[in-house]
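Quick one, T. Sequence first:
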Amino acid sequence: MGGYAGRYLRVDLSTGKIWVKETPRELIRDYLGGLGFAVKILWDEVDEHTDPLGPDNRLVISTGPLTGTMFPAAGRYQVNAKSPLTGIWGHANAGGFFGPELKFAGYDFIVIQGRSEKPVYLVIDDDLVELRDASHLWGEERDGRYYGGKTTFETIQMIREELGDETFKVAAIGPAGENLVRFASIINDLGNAAGRTGMGAVMGSKRLKAIAVRGSKGVRVAKPELFMEVVDEAYRKLLVDWGDALKETLTKYGTPNLVEAINAMGRMPVKNHWTGYWEKAHLIGGERIREEFRVKQASCFGCLVQCKYFVRSRKEPYAGVYKGPEYEALVSFGSSLLVEDVEAVFYANHLADLYGMDSISLGMTIAWAMESWEHGLLTKEDTGGLDLSWGNAEAMVELVKKTAFREGFGNVIAEGSKRASEIIGRGTEKYAMHVKGNEISAQDGRAHQSSGLTHATAARGADHLTSLSCLEERGYEQVAAERYGADKVKDLVDPQSTRYKGWLVWD
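Structure tokens:
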């Protein structure tokens, strides 16, 4: 069947057994791939009693039928499990090159169950699949404190060196995943993050430090000539119809281009979602970053947009070259905390990638703490001496570090805003900006009604991506008229109108 490898892996970490199985045709027919595969597996094998951090939880890493093909931007993959952050279905998505490499190795998805007695990493080299000792990559607890534990970047590089090939694609957790930070992420390709809902903590609970993949099989399509016609048309739309717009926005600035645009709409979260507009947005915006800090662009598999970028910071103590933050991280560590120092934002985002934490949940949980501090509901006695006043960049960076290692007040932040507010109490609960335990991302639903409805109804909790309404987002009046009728266009493309937005989120 075209677009599928036709096989999947099941790994039992408790026993060390690995099975290669055929991807059921009925699974493909009914669930297509990616999220669909994972939903079916989790529905069948995980229930309401399953401990998200226990051996019975399943970690499903899945690709779709386009993954690894020549279709534009077909390089993403899904990570799925019962979430330790929310207690419900969790999933995260990442770009880079890991997903296509898994398909090239001959597998549509991986199901990981159980818990290893010692830290391990999984090696997939086409038909050779094995577990290797990762004790030298894992930290240890002594006298109630955590020591060691290689960062995500160190882990990726060390595994490539051990395997003797830099072309291995590695997805790894850092100290935050080992310490079961509830929003720990999985990092691949030095900065691509499967960030949301704590999939890195699930990996850590299973004592699985990383997965390394190398493949040489390619991806077969059923009708190559017809497929290439579709691919050519997709590229034509990108290069001809949207080419100038892409070049002047996402390609030129990356997603930081969105900072000033969304701020102007009044929908960029500021001061823990207190308002949607910040007069200092230009300090963390795309134009300034491009002119003063950007040193290089990069692309994910098969993507011509090249929105990934790297920055050089010369300011101490943040000096270095890092992968630049996306729009969401600029808001989480910037406007949401009233931090004006963009180099501190760069560094906080770098640490989040290094230690393996979701920048959205991390930043928004710190925002909860800062607003609670403002109202006198948190004191230095709670925070271990940290001054959590709005805009305190030094405290933000220090708290990022403490969270990864669950030190001091970082141990509270590591629980996410919902649990943290319940631990502290004192009325701080009303400052925790979450839905179902998942922190609300950088889309203010008050200024964009379909985003608000999406946050409220998404299966994983607050989610700006699963039901993103492009009609309302971009104002596609012609498409709206063709799909829903000309009499409804005005309300459909008006971000302030609540009429017909249920259609946009559902459709």
